[in-house]
Design brief:
The complex is a heterodimer of chains A (about 350) and B (about 170). Chain A is built from 15 helices and no strands. Chain A has about 350 residues and is an all-alpha fold. Chain A has 2 domains: about 70 residues; about 270 residues, no CATH class. In chain A, helix 3 packs across helix 12 and helix 7 runs antiparallel to helix 10. Chain B is an alpha+beta fold and about 170 residues long. Chain B folds into 2 domains: about 35 residues; about 100 residues, Alpha-Beta Plaits (2-Layer Sandwich). In chain B, about 30% of the residues lie in helices and about 20% in strands. Chain B has 5 helices and 7 strands, in the order ααββαββαβββα. In chain B, the strands form 3 sheets. A 3-stranded antiparallel β-sheet of chain B has the order 3-4-6, with no helix packed on it. Chain B has a two-stranded antiparallel ribbon with strand order 1-5. In chain B, strands 2-7 form a two-stranded parallel sheet. Chain B is elongated. The chains are: A mainly alpha (about 350), B alpha+beta (about 170). Chains A and B meet through helix 2 of A and helix 1 of B.
């Protein structure tokens, strides 16, 4: 049924063959790792620039403003100019800070999001590693980032940083539960944690449609909890600029600040990519039952466009949250998680398990 | 049981109000015509960007004969809290040989002005007014010192006195 969709593994296979014909197997593996690393680095930089620009434009439109419009056509080069400014800025060192941990923290944050992106399936056959425990791996690796935040807050030796980091710790530890449970619901539906199997199971319909109302509830809970986990508004207490100046990265400047900033946007991309893969069918085109002509037209749209289209839709929704709702207080934040999201999620998981047991889904 | 109902009612109410907020921002996102931002340097010559009562700078209106209303009495200079006005007068011979005091230079230091408007309020002959110009950036501080009466201008009332006498 999906033979019409271009499989990127053909392309990667050709590259692999070409490399193997000119060098030994060990060097082939090393070269491929370097190539993939460079591709991800470039992808990171470009996507970070684009997401910052998109965020500023979306926020401006929601507030009846124009947004960046001076540098380049429609201000498209604004973020490039900002990046150049950040790279050339002075790195300020603080007296009585823990130099080693202070310098290490941004790298931990960015490495955590970098590790997770390896398991994201971008298109048919376009995935760096297809792990058996794909979902588990992503959940485990993305929550490493909070160590970097805690270290950054502690090592800066500043009260704002420390308060921000502690809030971030409380927040991520709480919301990790809801994220895990809501992803678990799809794992129950699929019976697998391998991302390629999860996507293949959505060939005849995305889980958000196939899983009835429980899947929709799981999707909404995932969106809320994941937004909290990446410290974005309305859950941006760790950086709360009106109370804590900039939270855990108050004392960072220049390229180190840029790393925290980039990691925040990349985590947003990761959250959207996971939501897309699990609930919205990943790179699978939109299909309706037996409308063969319609399904065929949908198949002609390349799978990579489907993936990025859905991801940017989710990112837009997350931005929409951020620029609509006011920030929560810390007690409201924990109340939302422990009194509302977690009990609902547990009930929802039991209902899903029951539905799967009875076979009441398509 | 009522507690359980209240729990779910709270959740539904929360979702409803949150959706209400998101609908408003979503509507603004989809209607770019409602943008209120004025793109300043582009619209400078296309439309009026300040209101009539805007306090841009102190000016001295001149009529078509290059005549103004200033008698050189110096009240504005006395009232100015910052000393940003200096009045220099001169004496010219009147028609019957008497020397008359008239304004020579009305010096206005824009760099010292707080735009309080006292000079305009106290002027007995309404010689001063607010101008609409607000682009005061210059490359040299000395350019902020302005002479308000134009060169070769004269007091409007002088002719009237002559007409009344003749």
């Amino acid at each position: 049924m999906h033979d019409r969709i271009y499989d990127f593994s053909q392309l990667t296979h050709h590259i692999d063959q070409a490399l193997r014909s000119v060098m030994s197997p060990t060097w082939t593996v090393i070269t491929e790792l370097v190539i993939i690393g460079l591709i991800f680095l470039g992808f990171y930089a470009l996507l970070g620039l684009f997401l910052v620009y998109a965020e500023r434009k979306v926020c401006a439109l929601m507030q009846n403003r124009i947004g960046p419009n001076r540098v380049g056509k429609w201000g498209t080069l604004q973020t490039v100019a900002d990046l150049i400014k950040l790279l050339t800025k002075e790195l300020v060192y603080i007296k009585r800070s823990d130099k080693f941990l202070y310098n290490l923290a941004p790298f931990i944050v960015i490495v955590a999001s970098f590790l997770a992106i390896a398991a994201v399936p971008f298109a048919k056959g376009l995935q760096a590693v297809d792990l058996d425990i794909g979902i588990f791996y992503i959940i485990a690796v993305t929550s490493l980032g909070v160590i970097g935040i805690l270290l950054g807050g502690w090592a800066s030796n500043s009260k704002y940083s420390l308060i921000g980091a502690m809030r971030s710790g409380a927040q991520v530890v709480s919301y990790e539960l809801s994220v895990g449970l809501s992803l678990l619901s799809i794992v129950i539906f699929t019976g697998s944690t391998r991302l390629s199997t999860i996507i293949a199971s959505q060939a005849d319909g995305w889980w958000i449609f196939k899983g009835h109302i429980p899947a929709v509830i799981a999707f909404l809970i995932y969106l809320v909890a994941a937004t909290a986990e990446i410290n974005r508004g309305p859950f941006d207490l760790p950086e709360a600029e009106s109370e804590l100046t900039a939270g855990f990265h108050t004392e960072y400047s220049g390229i180190k600040f840029a790393m925290f900033f980039l990691a925040e946007y990349m985590n947003m991309f990761l959250v959207a990519a996971i939501a897309t893969t699990l609930f919205l069918g990943g790179w699978m085109p939109f299909h309706i039952g037996h409308w063969d002509a319609f399904n065929r037209i949908m198949d002609y749209i390349p799978s990579i466009i489907w993936f990025f289209g859905k991801v940017f839709f989710i990112i837009y929704v997350i931005m929409w949250f951020k620029w609509t709702f006011p920030r929560l207080r810390i007690d409201q934040l924990l109340k939302l998680e422990w009194k509302y999201l977690l009990p609902l999620n547990l009930i929802n998981t039991i209902i899903i398990a029951f539905i799967v047991m009875m076979g009441w889904y398509f | 049981m009522s507690g359980v109902i209240k729990y779910f009612a709270d959740i539904l109410h929360g979702i409803k109000t949150l959706w209400g907020g998101m609908r408003i921002t979503g509507k603004y996102f989809l209607s770019p015509k409602e943008i209120v931002t004025q793109q300043y340097p582009e619209i400078r010559h296309k439309q009026k960007i300040v209101y009539d009562r805007f306090k841009g700078e102190v000016i001295m209106p001149h009529d078509e004969n290059n005549q103004h209303n200033c008698t050189g009495c110096g009240v504005c200079e006395m009232y100015c809290p910052n000393g940003s006005i200096e009045i220099i007068t001169k004496k010219i011979p009147g028609e019957n040989g008497k020397m008359i005091k008239v304004i020579d230079k009305h010096i206005y230091h824009l760099s010292m002005c707080t735009f309080c408007g006292l000079c305009i309020k106290v002027c007995p002959t309404q010689a001063l007014a607010w101008g609409q110009n607000f682009e005061h950036a210059v490359y040299d501080r000395s350019k902020l010192t302005k002479v308000l009466n134009k060169p070769g201008s004269s007091y409007k009332g002088l002719n009237k006195k002559k007409e009344a006498k003749s």
